[in-house]
Structures are given as C-alpha cells and as structure tokens.
Amino acid sequence: ISKKATAETSGQKDSKTKDPSEKDCINWKSKGKCRKLATCPYRHDPKLQELALSKRKRKNDASAPKSRTQEKKDKLATKESQPLSIRIFGLAYDTTPTELRKFLHDCGPIV
To answer: Whole-prediction pTM value?
Structure first.
C-alpha cells in the first residue's frame, strides 16, 4: 500500500498539503483585497493587507521612480515634432505633383 493510501485510510493529511484556511490568500497578500472575501477558503490576515497596501502606496508615490511608459510619455511631450514623411504607392503614371498637393492639402504643408 502506498503512503498516500495509508494516510487517507488513517485520516492523516500529507505533510506537504496544508488546509486552505492555513494558507494566505494570494490576492490578499499581493493586492490587499480579495473579490471572494466571504467565500474564499484562504486566510485573510489584516497585517498582510496593511503590508500589501503600503507597498502599493509606495509604488504609486510621486517620489518613486517613474514607470517606463510614463518616461516615454514625458520624453514625447518634450520632444520637438519633426516633419512626417510618407510614401504613396500604386499611383497612376499620369498623376502629377499638383494633383497630389490638391488631394493632400488638408494634411498641412507639403515640401
């Protein structure tokens, strides 16, 4: 008989598996909140919630380093705009630059 089978028959639990009420809820531990609070089988320790919320507050604090996306946005806001270059394919051979300028006049000045 295997160890698992003997543990089941004797009413003992395997030492590696814990009862869910003995484990911390991963959402509670990392986010400080749990959508299934009333029905969640895991433990919801108030100390863990305070710790998670303080970490999130520090992360969102203005003194904390900016995220990469925020750095990119700031860089784009301060960057000087450069003229846009486009390539147009599939034009008829008899299309003239005057016709193109007339067609694209709403796009701004064409160099």
So the answer is: 0.36
